[in-house]
C-alpha cells in the first residue's frame, strides 16, 4: 500500500489574485503540491482557503510559513482562511504560527483583507 | 451485570517503507486505535504524524531506503505508541524538509515521551497518552 492521504487542491485566478482552495489532509506526502501552487510568480495577491482541511502537521505548516515569508518579501499580500475550532486552527495555535500568519475565520474575511490591501 | 469495562484493543504493529505516503497510513491506524483505547484521537494522530515524518525526513538522507515500525498498545491507563526506524538516528540534517518542531510538538501533545536509540539502529520515539474516557 502506497496511498497518499485524501487531498485536493483547486487554484483559481481572478484579477491577479490567486485563490487556492485545499481540501482533506495536508501532510508531507501532499505538501509539495501546495508548495507548487503557492509558487505562482505573477500573483498580485494570494488567498489560501484551508477551511476544508481536516488535518495539518508541521510538514504542511512549513510550506505555509515559507510561502508567507517569500510573499512578504515580494510585498504580495497573503490571506489564509482557517475555520475556528478546526484541527488546522489548533495546529496553528499549538505552534504559535497563528501569530506569524495572516489568518481569517472564513474565506470572505480573507478576501476582504486582500481587497483592503488595494491590490 | 457489572458496568461495562472499556475494551482493551489488541496491540497493533505496522512495518512501513520510509516514504512520505506511509505517514498518513501510520496516522490513520494510530487514530483508530486511539479511538478504541479512549485516548484523544486528534492528539495521537498529530503526534504520530510528526514522529513518522521525522523518521522519513531525518533518518534516511539521500536516496537511502528504510523501514519504519509503529506499535500501539495499552499500558494500563495510558496508550503507548512507539515509532522506530532503521535509519541514521537523530542527527542534525541541514537538508531537512522539516521545521524542527516535531519533537516539541510531540511534547505538548503527549502525556510523556522519550527519544532514544532504537533496536534497529535508528531512533525510537515512545509517546504515552492518557486514556481520558476510562
What does this entry look like structurally?
The complex is a heterodimer of chains A (119) and B (134). By secondary structure, chain A is an alpha/beta fold. In chain A, 35% of the residues lie in helices and 30% in strands. Chain A contains four helices and five strands; from the N terminus they run E-E-H-E-H-E-H-E-H. A five-stranded mixed β-sheet of chain A has the order 1-2-3-4-5, sandwiched between helices. In chain A, a hairpin with a 2-residue loop joins strand 1 (7-14) and strand 2 (17-26). Chain A is globular, with a radius of gyration of 13 Å. The model of chain A has no long low-confidence stretch (mean pLDDT 93). Chain B is of the alpha+beta class and 134 residues long. The model of chain B has no long low-confidence stretch (mean pLDDT 88). Chain B is globular, with a radius of gyration of 15 Å. Chain B has a five-stranded antiparallel β-sheet, covered by helices on one side. The A-B interface holds A 1-5, 25, 27-29, 55, 57-59, 61-62, 65, 87, 90-91, 94-95 and B 17, 19-21, 23-25, 27, 42, 45-46, 49-50, 53, 56-57, 97-99, 101-102, 105, 108-109.
Give a summary of the structure in a few sentences.
The complex is a heterodimer of chains A (119) and B (134). With 119 residues, chain A is of the alpha/beta class.
Largest interface: A-B, 21 and 24 residues
Distance between the termini of chain B: 18 Å
Percent range of helical residues of chain B: 25-40%
**Overall number of strands of chain B:** 5
- Structural classification of chain B: alpha+beta
Distinctive features:
heterodimer, A: 119 residues, alpha/beta, B: 134 residues, alpha+beta, 32% helix
Amino acid at each position: 500500500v502506497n496511498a497518499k492521504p485524501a487531498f485536493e487542491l483547486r487554484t483559481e485566478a481572478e484579477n491577479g489574485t490567486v485563490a487556492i482552495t485545499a481540501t482533506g489532509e495536508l501532510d508531507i506526502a501532499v505538501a509539495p503540491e501546495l508548495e507548487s501552487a503557492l509558487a505562482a510568480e505573477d500573483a498580485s495577491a494570494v488567498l489560501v482557503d484551508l477551511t476544508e482541511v481536516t488535518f495539518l502537521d508541521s510538514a504542511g505548516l512549513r510550506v505555509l510559513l515559507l510561502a508567507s515569508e517569500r510573499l512578504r518579501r515580494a510585498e504580495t499580500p497573503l490571506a489564509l482562511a482557517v475555520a475556528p475550532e478546526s484541527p488546522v486552527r489548533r495546529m496553528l495555535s499549538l505552534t504559535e504560527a497563528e501569530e506569524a500568519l495572516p489568518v481569517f475565520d472564513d474565506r470572505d474575511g480573507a478576501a476582504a483583507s486582500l481587497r483592503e490591501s488595494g491590490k | 451485570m457489572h458496568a461495562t469495562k472499556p475494551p482493551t484493543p489488541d496491540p497493533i504493529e505496522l512495518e512501513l517503507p520510509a516514504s512520505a505516503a506511509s505517514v498518513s497510513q501510520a496516522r490513520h491506524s494510530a487514530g483508530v486505535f486511539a479511538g478504541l483505547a479512549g485516548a484523544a484521537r486528534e492528539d495521537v494522530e498529530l503526534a504520530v504524524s510528526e514522529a513518522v515524518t521525522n523518521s522519513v525526513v531525518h533518518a534516511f538522507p539521500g536516496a537511502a531506503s528504510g523501514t519504519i515500525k509503529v506499535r500501539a498498545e495499552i499500558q494500563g491507563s495510558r496508550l503507548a505508541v512507539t515509532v522506530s526506524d532503521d535509519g541514521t538516528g537523530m542527527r542534525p540534517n541541514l537538508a531537512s524538509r522539516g521545521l524542527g518542531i516535531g519533537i516539541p510538538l510531540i511534547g505538548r501533545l503527549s502525556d510523556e515521551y522519550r527519544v532514544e536509540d532504537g533496536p534497529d539502529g535508528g531512533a525510537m520515539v515512545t509517546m504515552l497518552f492518557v486514556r481520558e474516557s476510562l
